[in-house]
């Protein structure tokens, strides 16, 4: 049907009307199949059931005279019938189910397998009753001609085996299994026997296993069909765990060795994966004399075999490295390292190019396999800690994986990025330390490029996770490098990205960067940008992000820091023209009030109460007013912290005092370093600083003589002794190194919910102390500061009144209207 063009006048001529009639006839023809698909009165009559029948009677009737769809519905409802009336269901319904399943289709068979499993899990009847009523039905359909149906019944049977008593298992399952596993049976029957044997091993004693089960296992391992050999090989892991170490070494290991040399690639792959999973069972001699040669041969032949073998090998690389650690000779160690390097670049180098005879579909499949290999290499990269001081040898591979075009590779690397970067920056105190330090700046372009690639993709979760992991950078690179290369990017993401979780991740990471910034001038510039571009921004979306940022600041910084710089800019938003901003502010007010200490912050408390009263009296939006009223009740119930320690707030006050001390030490550190540079005429060298750091150990508990930080300049008397200043410098530098270690774990808790898949091969690395004052990596100086970070702009005062700022915001319109998350945008007239 062709509608008239837009704007064209309707033509009622005869030719035009005939054209419309033809179009209508086309529509009629299209609708005819829909009408024919409706049920006829006779069909509806056959599908109608007497409403007076009970559930049991209705089920029996539908199974006897109903259609397949009705019978499937009854079987799906079987667990419910068992809960309501188990005796009648077993006596009347279950026999009908048995009859129907003999001629049932695939859908009904799958439904029955799931229902039988649900009845078992819900324990509607005793195990004895279940075995008597259901077990034979399950065993009868194990060898169904449809593979999906057979697997469904097998999964149900394997769950039943877990709870059946030994005698039932022996008579109903193990004894018939002897004949089912013979070569005269079908391949499907032998495959089912393999999986059942793997499950039965844990249910019998060692004597029964050795006498009745292991002969069947050996027979199936030598089956003429490669599918059966592969299936039985994958069950050897379960069998080994059931029979113990001695029988595993004498029975299972020889079978695995033979299967690892099998002509079928799938059998060799199954043998390799089973060996890797059983490494913990074997002793050092078995690993070095038997398993290591097999692994070496497997690796050497893997590039000549199918890419699927490379995928499995790269995936199990972590387990393999840990299991064989300490056994490699230096030559074997070097070969294995080169093998890993080759896997990291598989598909990227010229020698791995495509064959001219390959068709595009084959090329695409091969690329997918290569990406899977590199993804597994990224997943297993944390095992690089086994290299100790030689970790710099795979620095190039880390850069390659970070720059990989596939986001799957980057995503696999992100989960353990903090420990990888820490390992790369502090990987051992050896003679190659200078080489590692020189190679580290290559990481920064790779990290920034990885973030930009994630930002340009549609996979915002990968981008969010990467930004969360960037919070580790103060632990790895210098404060100046973060300031010049990452801080402005965080601002850009907060102000321009369209994904809220990504914006919040950037906001939190920026707060952590600010927390560990070493220069007061830079901190002031960042605070100024937060207040002016976000808190006082024209877009209400930016003002919402400012409140998110303030919530992070309350969590990460001390109370005095927040009150000094952000308290007044936050409460000024009570006059914001957009209802969503005021609503979000009201939700934040209890946390804002928790930063106050009485009596020192009494004047701030009065301003907070005045703003809340204005909201109560002047708010016109009913949704905001409802939140304000709830917030007022919550604020009234809050107990205020005092300047002196209180027992009920002891832990929180102690943590806040620690934060204040750390912030004060950052100021002391900067001042003392400036004095040292002026006195010596040159900055402290990295080697000197590292030596002082190693020689000085900060105690776990901070000394009580440290002064508590207050908002404003310190009024305490400063010592003029050079020795005291020198000791303060060393103490503050050492404290800054260890403070991040003590706090980073807590700071990253909220950003690491998630994950992904558990990483089995890696082991958490020992926390090591790293200097945050390392100037050897800095690539830019003060002259290269971006215009947006101009040091000449003064920090706006936070002691000004709230009226002028509010009027300024209310007179402007939003420059970037967006869809708000709390409610639709509303503005005051």
Overall residue-averaged pLDDT value: 77
Distance between the termini: 50 Å
Uncertain spans, ≥5 residues at pLDDT below 50? 4-10, 428-438, 685-794, 796-829
Strand content: under 5%
User: What global shape is seen?
Assistant: globular
Task: Give a description of the structure.
The chain has about 850 residues and is an all-alpha fold. About 65% of the residues lie in helices and about 0% in strands. The protein has a two-stranded parallel ribbon with strand order 1-2. Residues about 5-10, about 430-440, about 685-795 and about 795-829 have low confidence and may be disordered.
Any chance you could write out the topology, listing elements then pairs?
Layout: H1 14-36, H2 41-47, H3 55-65, H4 68-76, H5 78-84, H6 86-101, H7 106-122, H8 127-133, H9 135-140, H10 147-161, H11 166-180, H12 187-200, H13 206-221, H14 226-243, H15 245-259, H16 265-277, H17 284-302, H18 307-315, H19 317-323, H20 330-344, H21 360-379, H22 395-402, H23 407-414, H24 417-426, H25 433-439, H26 443-456, H27 460-469, H28 479-496, H29 500-515, H30 520-535, H31 540-556, H32 559-565, H33 567-571, H34 579-593, E1 597-598, H35 602-618, H36 622-637, E2 641-642, H37 650-680, H38 686-695, H39 722-747, H40 802-811
Parallel strand pairs: 1-2
Biased composition (Polar residues): 780-808
Protein name: Protein phosphatase 4 regulatory subunit 4
Biased composition (Basic residues): 820-829
């Amino acid at each position: 049907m062709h509608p008239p063009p837009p704007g064209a006048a309707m033509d009622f001529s005869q030719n035009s009307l005939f054209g419309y009639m033809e179009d209508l006839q086309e529509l009629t023809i299209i609708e005819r199949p829909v009408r024919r698909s409706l049920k006829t009165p006779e069909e509806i009559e056959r599908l109608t059931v007497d409403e007076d029948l009970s559930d049991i009677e209705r089920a029996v009737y539908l199974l006897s005279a109903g259609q397949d769809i009705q019978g499937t519905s009854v079987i799906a409802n079987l667990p419910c019938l068992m809960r309501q009336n188990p005796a009648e269901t077993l006596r009347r319904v279950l026999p009908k189910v048995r009859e129907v399943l003999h001629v049932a289709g695939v859908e009904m068979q799958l439904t029955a397998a799931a229902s039988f499993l649900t009845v078992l899990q819900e324990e509607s009847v005793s195990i004895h009753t279940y075995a008597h009523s259901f077990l034979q039905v399950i065993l009868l359909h194990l060898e169904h001609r449809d593979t999906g149906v057979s697997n469904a019944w097998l999964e149900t049977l394997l769950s039943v085996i877990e709870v059946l008593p030994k005698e039932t298992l022996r008579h109903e399952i193990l004894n018939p299994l002897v004949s089912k596993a013979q070569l005269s049976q079908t391949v499907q029957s032998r495959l089912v026997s393999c999986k059942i044997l793997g499950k039965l091993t844990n249910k019998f004693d060692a004597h029964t296993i050795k006498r009745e089960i292991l002969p069947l296992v050996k027979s199936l391992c030598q089956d003429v069909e490669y599918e059966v050999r592969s299936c039985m090989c994958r069950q050897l892991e379960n069998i080994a765990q059931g029979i113990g170490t001695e029988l595993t070494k004498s029975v299972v290991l020889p079978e695995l060795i033979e299967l690892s040399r099998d002509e079928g690639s799938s059998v060799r792959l199954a043998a390799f994966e089973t060996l890797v999973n059983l490494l913990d069972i074997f002793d050092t001699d078995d690993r070095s004399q038997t398993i290591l040669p097999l692994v070496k041969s497997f690796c050497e032949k893997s590039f000549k075999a199918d890419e699927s073998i490379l995928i499995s090998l790269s995936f199990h690389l972590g387990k393999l490295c840990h299991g064989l650690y300490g056994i490699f000779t230096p030559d074997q160690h070097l070969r294995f390292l080169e093998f890993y390097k080759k896997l990291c670049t598989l598909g990227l180098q010229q020698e791995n190019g495509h064959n001219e005879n390959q068709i595009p579909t084959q090329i695409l499949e091969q690329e997918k396999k290569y990406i899977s290999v590199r993804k597994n290499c990224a997943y297993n990269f944390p095992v690089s800690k086994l290299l100790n001081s030689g970790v710099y040898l795979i620095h190039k591979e880390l850069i390659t994986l970070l720059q990989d075009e596939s986001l799957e590779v980057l995503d696999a690397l992100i989960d353990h990025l903090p420990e990888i970067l820490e390992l790369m920056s502090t990987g051992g105190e050896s003679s190659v330390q200078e080489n590692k330090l020189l190679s580290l700046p290559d990481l920064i372009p790779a990290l920034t490029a990885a973030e930009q690639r994630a930002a340009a993709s549609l996979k915002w979760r990968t981008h969010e996770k990467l930004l969360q992991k960037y919070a580790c950078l103060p632990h790895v690179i210098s404060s100046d490098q973060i300031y010049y290369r990452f801080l402005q990017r965080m601002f850009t993401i907060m102000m321009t990205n369209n994904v809220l979780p990504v914006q919040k991740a950037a906001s939190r990471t920026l707060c952590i960067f600010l927390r560990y910034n070493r220069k007061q001038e830079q901190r002031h510039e960042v605070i100024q940008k937060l207040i002016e571009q976000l808190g006082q921004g024209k877009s209400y979306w930016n003002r919402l992000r400012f409140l998110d940022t303030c919530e992070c600041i309350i969590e990460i910084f001390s109370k005095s820091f927040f009150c000094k710089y952000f308290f007044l800019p936050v409460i000024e938003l009570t006059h914001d023209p957009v209802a969503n901003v005021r609503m979000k502010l009201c939700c934040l007010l209890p946390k804002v009030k928790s930063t106050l200490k009485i009596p020192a912050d009494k004047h701030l408390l009065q301003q907070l109460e005045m703003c809340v009263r204005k909201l109560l009296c002047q708010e016109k939006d009913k949704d905001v007013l409802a939140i304000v009223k709830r917030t007022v009740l919550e604020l009234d119930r809050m107990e205020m912290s005092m300047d002196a320690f209180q027992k009920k707030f002891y832990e929180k006050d102690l943590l806040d005092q620690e934060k204040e001390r750390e912030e004060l030490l950052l100021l002391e550190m900067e001042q003392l370093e400036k004095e040292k540079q002026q006195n010596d005429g040159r900055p402290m060298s990295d080697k000197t600083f590292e030596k002082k750091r190693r020689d000085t150990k900060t105690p776990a508990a901070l000394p009580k003589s440290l002064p508590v930080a207050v908002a404003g300049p310190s009024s305490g008397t400063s010592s003029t002794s050079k020795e005291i200043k020198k000791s303060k410098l060393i103490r503050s530098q050492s404290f800054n190194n260890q403070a991040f270690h003590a706090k980073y774990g807590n700071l990253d808790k909220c950003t690491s919910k998630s994950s992904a898949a558990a990483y089995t091969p890696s082991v958490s690395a020992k926390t090591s102390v790293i200097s945050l004052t390392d100037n050897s990596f800095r690539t830019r100086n003060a002259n290269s500061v971006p215009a947006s970070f101009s040091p000449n702009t003064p920090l706006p005062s936070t002691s000004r009144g709230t009226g002028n700022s509010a009027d300024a915001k209310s007179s402007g319109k939003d420059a970037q209207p967006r869809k708000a998350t709390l409610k639709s945008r509303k503005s005051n007239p």
